[in-house]
Amino acid sequence: MSATNPSARLSKAVIPAAGLGTRFLPATKATPKEMLPVVDKPAIQYVVEEAVNAGLTDVLMVTGRNKRPLEDHFDRAAELETQLARKGDHDRLAQIRESAELADIHYVRQGDPRGLGHAVLCAAPHVGREPFAVLLGDDLIDPRDPLLERMAEVRREHGGSVIALIPVEPEQIHLYGCAAVRPTETPDVVEVSDLVEKPDRGEAPSGLAVIGRYLLDPAVFDVLRWTEPGRGGEIQLTDALRVLAGMPAEKGGGVRGVLFHGRRYDTGDRGDYLRTIVRLACERDDLGPDFRAWLREFVTKEMRELR
């Protein structure tokens, strides 16, 4: 096990997409949660677009049963394209072709749902011994706040692995992985000394939560192969990162965190999913003006009725 060159070009992204989406049942009974629309695009497309904007054009999706719509969405739809071309609907034709031309997308099945760490391990044959990104589909990062690009800068400078951290309220920390950190000379970068998966409020080592963006040294695969199931009986990526944090740099160790204060949209919770749609719709040039006017009228009426 040895470290990769910190300046090695990042080109591969892994997107775990094998979850059952039980929080959104019954909508996700037959539709993958990653395909739920956020305004007029499925959530997964925002994630792929983020990877591509950061220069990651080789994308591997780790899927499971009933995820065929993901493959169909990022494939060509010849019959639909022919119909739209015949009608002269060039705007919609461009929109549906865009998803098929975004990136070089591959798929691998995670046969048993054994946790995020196992999903990442499923990517090992495709990734090889290159550094790579992991993007979780529940977190959408606003393109105006290029988080992955900043994480790549930190990796080029220091090597090892890089995770994204946000400050959260103490009553929310049990929902996340939590990092124990040491400050560095760079204000938005910390050294990670330990991680705890979904700690109880009194046991959290800090108020910094891990969100769904990782740049990982391939040494993580060697660690994951012997990582025992942890919280929830699953192989946790957090547990592997704990080991990497204590390993020497020449063996691919070291974990740093980028403190992210930009715009992040959580689509894994039903309430936050709805708020995400409202926020993004309000900012659209084509939808925003009419939608904001309706929203003001709706909220005013609701407030009046509550008095």
TrEMBL record:
GO terms for molecular function: UTP:glucose-1-phosphate uridylyltransferase activity. Pfam families: NTP_transferase. CDD domains: UGPase_prokaryotic. Residues 12-244 form the Nucleotidyl transferase domain. It is an enzyme of class 2 (transferase). Gene3D superfamilies: Spore Coat Polysaccharide Biosynthesis Protein SpsA, Chain A. Keywords: Nucleotidyltransferase, Transferase. Belongs to the UDPGP type 2 family. This is UTP--glucose-1-phosphate uridylyltransferase. It comes from Mangrovactinospora gilvigrisea.
